[in-house]
Amino acid sequence: MIYSLAAAEPDRASHFHGDEVETKQKRVWNLPEKGAIFQTMLSDPETLAIMEPILGDDLMLSSYAANVLYGGALAQEPHVDYPYPAVIRP
Questions:
Q1: Is pLDDT of 31 > 90?
Q2: Dist. CA 78–CA 46, nearest whole Å
Q3: How many domains does the chain have?
Q4: What's the pTM?
Q5: Which of 41, 45, 51, 69 has its CA 20 to 30 A from that of 23?
Q6: What b-and-e string marks burial along 24-44, b requiring 16 or more CB atoms within 10 Å of the CB?
């Protein structure tokens, strides 16, 4: 399903590699509006049980998107999109 949604997206450079001549990456934004399966995934009790201890029981979704990389796409280094404080363990 993600690939068909990505195929419908316009070709444009990503904000990671804006100098690409040929787009090798596509984003599909706002997945909850693109199918009930995405809404179901977000409300899954097991997923929430994992996320709530990390983010709190008043967590809020700010973005839910797919990032599709095609052959020859440049790799992105592992990173965190939000500067969560380091968890200190004894």
A1: yes
A2: 25
A3: 1
A4: 0.66
A5: 41
A6: bbbebeebeebeeebeeeeee
